[in-house]
Design goal:
By secondary structure, this protein is of the alpha+beta class. It is built from 8 helices and 13 strands. The chain is globular, with a radius of gyration of 19 Å. The two termini are 20 Å apart.
Length: 298
C-alpha cells in the first residue's frame, strides 16, 4: 500500500463536471496527501495501490447498480473504502427508509410497491398530493408529484415503473418543502455545515429528468431539533464503522416537525464549493484516515 495516496472515486461525467474534485485534490495536496481522481469503472485499476478510496461523484451508479455494488465489494478488498461497501449497498436502495422508521427515526411516510405484487387496493394513493419515484434513483430522475385530481396519472406512473422491474415509492407530498429542503452535512460523524435549497418538483404531474437537483442553494443554520433528527438517523445506520461523510435531507411535515426525506451516504453533493469549512473538514478527515493504522477509531 502506498503512503498518503487516496483515490477520489468519480465517473466519466464527474471527471468533467464535478467542481469539488479539484478542490479536494488541492486541499489534500496542502496536507501532504496525493489525491487521484479515478473513475469507478475504469478498467484495470489497482485499488491496492491506494491507502483508501473515497466515493465522491459516481453519478451513473444507479444506471448499473449491480455492477457498481460489485465494484464496491472489489475495491474494498483492495483498499479501505469510504463509505464502507455494506453501507453503500444498504443506502443504494431507498427501502432503507423503512429500516429507519422501524428504528424510530422520523421519516417521510413511504409505501413501497415491488414488481409482481398487486399494485394496491382502490384509493391506495390516499386523498392528498403524492410523490411517485423509483426506490433506486438519484437526482429526482423518473420522479414526479401529483395533485389529488392527477391520481390517475400517478397510478400510470407507478405501473410504468413496475413494468420496468423497478421498486416504486409512494409518499405524501409535504407542501412545506416549498419553504426549502434542509441538507445537513456530517463529516466523521460530526455536524459540519448545512444548506437550504428550493423545491425540485415545482410542476405537478411532470417527469422532468433535466431538472436542476439542487436549486437556489443558500447557507443554513439548522435548529437543534433538525440536528437531533439527523443524528438519530445516522445512529440507525447498520454499521459499526465510522462514516466518513453523510448528508441528511430533511423537510418539515404539516406540524413543522423535521422528518428525514433521504439519507445520502454514497456520493452526495456536499456543497464544498460554497462552504469552504466543509472542504477543510473533509480534507482533514480523509488525511487522518489515510494515515491511521486503525481508521475505524477516527
Amino acid at each position: 500500500m502506498g503512503s498518503g495516496r487516496v483515490a477520489i472515486v468519480t465517473s466519466g461525467a464527474g471527471m468533467e463536471w464535478d467542481a469539488d474534485l479539484p478542490l479536494i485534490v488541492e486541499a489534500l495536496r496542502a496536507r501532504g496527501v496525493v489525491g487521484v481522481p479515478v473513475a469507478w469503472d475504469a478498467p484495470d485499476v489497482a485499488w491496492e495501490r491506494f491507502d483508501l478510496a473515497v466515493i465522491r461523484s459516481t453519478w451513473d451508479y444507479t444506471e448499473r447498480i449491480e455492477t457498481f455494488l460489485a465494484w464496491a465489494d472489489r475495491a474494498a478488498r483492495g483498499t479501505r473504502l469510504w463509505n464502507p461497501a455494506p453501507v453503500v449497498r444498504w443506502n443504494s436502495d431507498k427501502r432503507y427508509l423503512r429500516d429507519l422508521a422501524e428504528k424510530g427515526v422520523d421519516v417521510v411516510p413511504t409505501r413501497f410497491i415491488e414488481p409482481g405484487s398487486p399494485v394496491a387496493e382502490e384509493g391506495f394513493l390516499g386523498d392528498g398530493p403524492v410523490v411517485v419515484k423509483p426506490a433506486i434513483s438519484a437526482g429526482a430522475v423518473d420522479t414526479a408529484r401529483y395533485e389529488p385530481d392527477q391520481h390517475a396519472a400517478a397510478e400510470q406512473h407507478v405501473r410504468a415503473l413496475l413494468e420496468q422491474g423497478r421498486i416504486v415509492m409512494v409518499q405524501p407530498y409535504l407542501r412545506l418543502v416549498e419553504e426549502g429542503e434542509r441538507a445537513l452535512v456530517f463529516i466523521g460523524g460530526t455536524f459540519s455545515h448545512a444548506i437550504r435549497k428550493g423545491p425540485v418538483l415545482t410542476e405537478s404531474g411532470e417527469i422532468d429528468n433535466d431538472r436542476v437537483p439542487h436549486p437556489d442553494v443558500t447557507p443554513y443554520d439548522p435548529t437543534d431539533e433538525e440536528i437531533t433528527t439527523a443524528l438519530t438517523a445516522l445512529a440507525a445506520v447498520p454499521t459499526a464503522d465510522a462514516l466518513l461523510f453523510a448528508r441528511v435531507d430533511l423537510v418539515l411535515d404539516e406540524t413543522r416537525r423535521p422528518v428525514v426525506m433521504e439519507l445520502e451516504l454514497i456520493e452526495p453533493n456536499l456543497f464544498l464549493e460554497s462552504r469552504p469549512e466543509g472542504l477543510n473538514h473533509l480534507a482533514d478527515s480523509i488525511t487522518a484516515r489515510s494515515r491511521a493504522v486503525d481508521p475505524t477509531q477516527i
